[in-house]
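Final report, Chapter 2: Outcomes

The project's central promise was a pipeline that accepts a single protein chain and returns its three-dimensional structure in a standardized token representation, suitable for archiving and comparison. That pipeline is now operational. To close this chapter, we reproduce one record exactly as it appears in the project archive, with the input sequence first and the structure output second.
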Amino acid sequence: MSFFDKIFGGKSETPDQKTFWKKIESEEDLTKAIEDSFQNKIAIFKHSTSCFISRTVLKNFEKEVENSDQPVNVYYLDLLAHRSLSNKIAADFEIRHESPQLIVIENGKPVNSASHQDISLSQIVS
């Protein structure tokens, strides 16, 4: 990895490589995530793959999850690749879109949301 890739977030580890992420890439995936929220609290991480701040927050959040013994159900949405799904989430849950953003859902309803440096595992497990 080059020096610039390290600074600007080149092709380093992606959420695909983290075993705890469940991807949202279709309306069917989103429906399944919402259905899952009736069994366990879930969180959707909306990430802009072209934003350095979003990448930094994502990496910090991943470290928190990896270092925790708390079981969590976390979903990952690449909002640049799936802008319509991101817009649907914002409209359906009446939560203003931000990036990066973590939306916590329980029983089909948002119970918490955070963006930027406010994103942490504590939003899910508290």
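Archive annotation: The radius of gyration is 14 Å.
This record, like all others produced under the grant, will remain available to the consortium after the project formally closes.
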